[in-house]
């Protein structure tokens, strides 16, 4: 798989994610570009039958340096340790960052993008902000 296909897979995923969450594409792109190795770390890549079926990450708080939120995403749901998700049940920015990362890992490892439309839980939850 060439880099053009990876870029196309990433671009389409961001568009689909924006549509599914009802969040402006510019906001999704801000999160996409905010993913920096010092502020977001992959802890685990979950693979099954040659597919990447989820990731677990630590994402640093955007407001409090040194405070990390632990987030996992997969086909059946997402969980994050931040207040917006734990108490508000919101799809927080950390979950969106983890979704974007999951898709990139899947594209790079298997050449397959994550199908946003297969994530039924995305539409049930409401996005933060
Ligand atoms: Zn969170």
Total beta-strand segments? 4
Structural class: alpha+beta
**Poorly predicted segments:** none
Note the beta-strand portion: 15-25%
**Quick check: average pLDDT?**
92
Number of helices: 5
Q: Largest sheet, order of strands side by side?
A: 1-2-3-4
What Rg is obtained from the alpha carbons, in whole angstroms?
14 Å
What's the N-to-C terminus distance? 36 Å
Taken together, the total number of domains comes to 1
Distinct small molecules bound, one entry per kind:
zinc ion
The helix-strand sequence is: HHEEEEHHH
What characterizes the major β-sheet?
A: 4 strands, antiparallel
From the spread of the alpha carbons, the general shape counts as globular
Q: Give the helix proportion (percent range).
A: 40-55%
